[in-house]
What we know:
Layout: E1 3-7, E2 10-13, E3 18-25, E4 34-39, E5 46-51, E6 57-59, E7 67-72, E8 77-82, E9 91-97, E10 102-103, E11 107-112
Parallel strand pairs: 2-11
Antiparallel strand pairs: 1-3, 3-8, 4-5, 4-9, 5-6, 7-8, 9-10, 9-11
Amino acid sequence: QVQLVESGGGLVQAGGSLRLSCAASGFTFSRYAMAWYRQAPGKQRELAADISSSGRTNYADSVKGRFIISRDNAKNTVFLQMNSLKPEDTAVYYCHRYTGSHWGQGTQVTVSS
């Protein structure tokens, strides 16, 4: 079965950096587009970034230039490098596989001002 396990969240000061990881299992990882979504308290879940099976990337305007999504197909892992973090980046971050709509359990990112 498809499993997506996020890690790397935590508490960081504004201007700091975090790197999220999503370890995938139960499918041929390299064949699928992957994404990072986030959900802030009281708000709808929104796309932060995604990456195609061929490595093409796409970013929400709110994170463009600060976040970098990447993947390591040999390790079945997708990453989200988050730089210049702002308090408004505070959210639960979820790993997502579009095909079949699979989600991880989420990891909390809190940015203090």
